[in-house]
Design a protein that fits this description.
It is found in: Membrane. The protein is mainly α and about 280 residues long. The protein has 8 helices and no strands.
């Protein structure tokens, strides 16, 4: 009888522990899902703000750059398409929304680049202000996208992991969609060639003759001096003893050729006086 009671108590304890663990996992899914929804709402606010700025930007560019009609039409069409997809969505974004916003971002970048050929437009106050506001909006969208994707990664990991995937399947928690940017123009890092920067304007032309060499007349490949070659100054006065520093540290002055009766300095740097 006592053994049966012990078994019942152990079973009840296990059920209670498993229930608490399951409840904790479920609440963790709820918190993660709410955090994802909150981070997406921040992005959605900035996307709607971009919808409002784009028509003003298009009209400003149209007044100065009527030749960019195709680019302006593309921006307007993609803006309306993205806004239409957003109006039919509820909650988290779908892959279709991500693609629409990605195409709109690329069209806006192309429009900003195309106005480089219009100096009057580049100096327009309204255009500069719209460009500044769009740049700030894009920065906030990028920051919000990183925060949102980080929350999605944590949530999707719980959905796939064991044993939380059991609770996810029972409660029908589905994986969330990343808000990604797959445009190569956005992902590509800027091309920086340090070789061109370092040697720009410093390389001599290929046909330029190399400087004349002194010594044996030999040079290394490419017209550069051979580091192993012994060099001698041109038209140097011939001396019977070298002007290299002596062990004592004394360097005698240059006197040209040694005259009769002169003696080279002795070891130690001392020169004895000449006897008459």
């Amino acid at each position: 009888m006592d053994a049966l009671i012990i078994v019942i108590v152990v079973v009840v304890l296990l059920v209670v522990i498993l229930g608490i663990a399951a409840m904790s996992m479920y609440n963790g899914f709820i918190r993660s899902r709410n955090l994802i929804q909150e981070s997406w709402r921040q992005i959605d606010v900035e996307l709607n703000r971009r919808y409002e700025l784009i028509p003003n930007l298009v009209e400003t560019v149209r007044a100065y750059a009527s030749h960019e009609r195709n680019t302006l039409e593309d921006v307007t069409r993609l803006r309306n398409q993205a806004q239409s997809v957003a109006s039919h969505e509820s909650g988290l974004p779908t892959q279709q929304r991500s693609q629409a916003e990605e195409q709109l971002s690329g069209a806006v970048r192309n429009l900003i680049v195309s106005v480089e050929a219009y100096p009057d437009l580049k100096s327009n106050v309204n255009f500069l202000e719209l460009q500044k506001q769009l740049a700030e909006t894009e920065d906030r969208i990028a920051a919000g996208r990183r925060f949102y994707n980080a929350n999605v990664r944590v949530y999707n990991t719980k959905v796939d992991s064991v044993p939380s995937n059991i609770i996810a399947g029972m409660a029908k928690f589905e994986k969330a969609t990343y808000f990604e940017v797959n445009d190569p123009a956005v992902r590509r890092a800027p091309d920086v060639n340090f070789g061109e920067i370092a040697y720009r304007g410093e390389q001599p032309p290929a046909s330029a003759p190399s400087a004349p060499q002194v010594g044996t007349g030999q040079s290394a490949p490419g017209g550069l001096p051979d580091p192993n070659q012994q060099w001698a100054p041109q038209q140097a006065p011939q001396q019977e003893w070298s002007q290299q520093p002596q062990p004592g540290g004394y360097v005698p002055p240059s006197t040209g050729q040694q005259g009769p009766g002169q003696q080279p300095p002795s070891q130690g740097g001392y020169t004895p006086p000449q006897s008459r």
